[in-house]
Amino acid sequence: MGQRGEARRVQAYDGELGAAVARAQEGDEAAFAVAYRLVQPGLLGYLRGLVGDDAEDVAADAWLEIARDLRRFKGDGAGFRGWTATIARHRALDHLRRQKVRPRPTALEQDVLDLPGPHSTHDQALETLSTEAALALVSGLPRDQAEAVLLRVVVGLDGPSAARVLGKRPGAVRTATYRGLKRLARELGVDGVTEDAPRTLGDST
User: Fold this and answer.
1) What is the tens place of the pLDDT at every residue in 15-27?
2) Cα dihedral 14→16→19→24 (10° resolution)
């Protein structure tokens, strides 16, 4: 299944996920297992993009924290995916610090006020990719682009939710996603992806 389809599949489960989380907060262990089953694949894919082969261990640490703090969570299924992604990202960054690996600095420092939606790039490039192939290609992107693409496509978050996870403005995440997908499309040799997108002040190359 292409990554675009994967994101849609993840989002389609948000109603079931929200109901499971609500039951889990009341102590229903089976419901927590349902929430885990729905969230873990995307979360693990995101972590593989951040820490590689250590993703399973980092995910385990993240789920310990998720279980511990579950009663504090407030929100729906989509909100739960964003909350768990935030926790997982913090654990991943802790892991990288312990390894004394400094994340690459974000190249994009200014928000772009308006860019056209990358629907063509999404549809053409991401439908071409399997999960493993996508992660291999995404790992070659600049860090800000890689994280944005992973959160939007693999975890299935919308722009504002991904921005909250990353602590960035939504426009910055939108731009990083657009650039990352455009670069992936070029590497795949996808037709119809132009080199130049309309820019506004604040856009940097």
Assistant:
1) 899 999 999 999 9
2) -100
128: how many CB neighbours lie within 10 A of its CB?
17
CA distance 197 to 181: 13
For helices 131-138 and 29-51, what crossing angle results, to 10°? 40
Residues 6 or more apart whose CB falls under 8 angstroms from that of 56 comprise 44
Q: Is the whole-model pTM more than 0.90?
A: no
* 106 pLDDT higher than 50: no
Give the position of tokens 């959160």: 151
- From residue 166, give the alpha-carbon distance in Å to each of 52, 72, 83, 137: 19, 20, 11, 21
For residues 151 and 53, what is the distance between their CA atoms, to the nearest angstrom?
Answer: 18
